[in-house]
């Protein structure tokens, strides 16, 4: 097959490309330039898509002996990922930019262009397992539970998955680093990137303030309606947040307060006890199905609402344009804007059934 290997400049994508070459595919490497003003150097393990990363990707391609190109997708990335991130926070929602990047950039813009150029598949360094079962794609958790990225790939469509390759799905990170060293790849010990790539200093609140400005509002006790303080904008908070609330007086029972709800129109941030964070049902929209087959009936599953954690057994069913999820166990810190990913129930519990963007939550009184 003709394979386009997305090479970020990190160890995972380099080894994924190497494995594609070793399997006999006709591989071409491509690095995505996603920043209009890339820095010349990373800051430790923070950030990605810098000039340094593009150089690392090119050196890896040279070692593998494959053609290498840089594609400028900075404008598309800004519109589909960065601007979306800001708009979602401004509306009181909590997006996952990595999920949006996979959906809109790596497996929409990149894959569409690859197919148009005659490539059969796009290869990435994601930790997830992908196979064809009874003629349809099956996306599963990776063998390395700590590195599993099936959650951020769950919004991909059946057609996108048919043209995708994830060579690292059966490997652990230490094994990947060892392989990189054995292959003579200089990125073998390069630190993993973390946090949000377009906020390399990790100051999300400061980034949003620079984009949105200040929109003062009230901090309100959800149980009593009492005004506890003021804030500079709902975009500075997320559901489940405990620290940095700016409340001087302790709760009457002395226990911590948490952000329970964000109301961007009125500028109200509602806070209360941890127990009031618990939700028992989730409503989602824009559902996607890796197999191309929506749920036909209420289905037992495991729902995950964050990239790392936030799991609970549940029953999910399609209701019109919505996905309704009834939790068997309450979850805390579930926020509109996050993605609910459905997995098959135990004992396997690792097959992605579908995903949807959370639009509302509720709790049993």
TrEMBL record:
One of its GO terms (molecular function) is ATP binding. The gene is mnmA. Gene3D superfamilies: Adenine nucleotide alpha hydrolases-like domains, HUPs, Translation factors. Keywords: ATP-binding, Cytoplasm, Disulfide bond, Methyltransferase, Nucleotide-binding, RNA-binding, Transferase, tRNA processing, tRNA-binding. Belongs to the MnmA/TRMU family. This is tRNA-specific 2-thiouridylase MnmA. Its EC number is 2.8.1.13. It is found in: Cytoplasm.
């Amino acid at each position: 097959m003709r394979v386009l290997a997305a090479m970020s400049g990190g160890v995972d994508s380099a080894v994924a490309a190497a494995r594609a070459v070793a399997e006999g595919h006709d591989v071409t490497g491509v690095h995505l330039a996603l920043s209009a003003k890339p820095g010349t150097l990373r800051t430790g393990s923070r950030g990605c898509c810098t000039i340094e990363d593009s150089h690392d990707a090119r050196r890896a391609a040279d070692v593998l002996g494959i053609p290498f190109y840089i594609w400028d997708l900075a404008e598309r990335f800004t519109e589909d990922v960065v601007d979306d991130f800001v708009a979602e926070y401004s509306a009181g929602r909590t997006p996952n930019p990595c999920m949006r990047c996979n959906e809109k950039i790596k497996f929409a813009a990149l894959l569409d262009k690859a197919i148009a150029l005659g490539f059969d598949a796009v290869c990435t360094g994601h930790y997830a397992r992908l196979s064809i079962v009874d003629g349809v794609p099956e996306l599963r958790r990776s063998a390395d539970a700590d590195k599993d990225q099936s959650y951020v790939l769950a919004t991909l469509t059946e057609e996108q998955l048919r043209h995708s390759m994830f060579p690292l799905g059966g490997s652990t990170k230490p094994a990947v680093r060892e392989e990189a060293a054995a292959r003579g790849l200089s990125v073998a010990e390069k630190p993993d990137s973390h946090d949000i790539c377009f906020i390399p200093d990790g100051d999300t609140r400061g980034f949003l303030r620079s984009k949105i400005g200040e929109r003062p509002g009230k901090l309100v006790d959800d149980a009593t309606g009492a005004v506890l303080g003021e804030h500079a904008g709902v975009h500075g908070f997320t559901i489940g947040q405990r620290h940095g609330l700016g409340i001087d007086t302790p709760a009457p029972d002395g226990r911590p307060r948490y952000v329970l709800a964000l109301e961007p129109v009125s500028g109200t941030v509602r806070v209360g006890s941890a127990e009031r964070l618990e939700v028992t049902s989730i409503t989602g929209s824009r559902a996607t199905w890796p197999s191309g087959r929506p749920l036909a009936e209420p289905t037992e599953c495991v729902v995950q609402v964050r990239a790392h954690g936030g799991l609970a057994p549940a029953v999910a069913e399609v209701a019109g344009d919505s996905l309704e999820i009834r939790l068997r166990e309450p979850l805390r810190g579930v926020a509109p804007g996050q993605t609910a990913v459905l997995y098959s129930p135990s004992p396997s519990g690792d097959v992605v059934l579908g995903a949807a963007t959370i639009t509302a939550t509720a709790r049993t009184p």
